[in-house]
Amino acid sequence: MLLLYAIVATAGAGVTFANEDGTGIACPPLSVNIGGEYCATFSTTSGSWYDMEAYCNQLGTSLAKLESVDFHYYLAKYIYDNGLQHQEWWVGGTDKDHEGNWVYPDLTPVKMGTPFWGYSYGGLFNNQDPSGGTLKNCMALCKEYWHDAGDLKCTSHHKGICGYYQYPYENIKWDL
């Protein structure tokens, strides 16, 4: 159902490129170019982390991985440049299977610390996420952290960001 809604909402969307002349990195239909080297699809509906991962799987990918500072920067920049900063956005990290062992769905490790994870300030202590223990096991770009990562309850409802990584145009053919 989520996939059908996304297709209807973006009917006519085609392949997007990093450069206006049609060169550079090609992005699949329903996605946008992020920073000239990455592609992402922003869901139009909200759901749990599990719902958003299933949505991304229907598109042939998974929730986005914050594997580089550049991708994280350009993703946050896109969020702010396009007025999307007033909400949290699910991305792919989780420690739901083993507390403290943050991994992406493909089991690659999540990068920890600065500059990826946000800080909560106040009281006697300043804590850097992830700090939610067994109650918060899924990763999102959080508005309170200026869209650095935070750990949230996996069942809370937010929109998701599906990630695609460095597709050279000449190697991709989509049947539209």
UniProtKB/TrEMBL annotation:
Write the record's keywords in alphabetical order, separated by commas. Signal
Which PROSITE patterns does the UniProt record give? C_TYPE_LECTIN_2
Q: Which residues form the signal peptide?
A: 1-18
Report if keyword Signal is assigned.
yes
The record's InterPro entries line, in alphabetical order, gives: C-type_lectin-like, C-type_lectin-like/link_sf, CTDL_fold
Which SMART domains is this protein grouped with? CLECT
Superkingdom is: Eukaryota
Location of the C-type lectin domain: 35-163
Q: What is this protein called?
A: C-type lectin domain-containing protein
Which organism is this protein's natural source? Meganyctiphanes norvegica
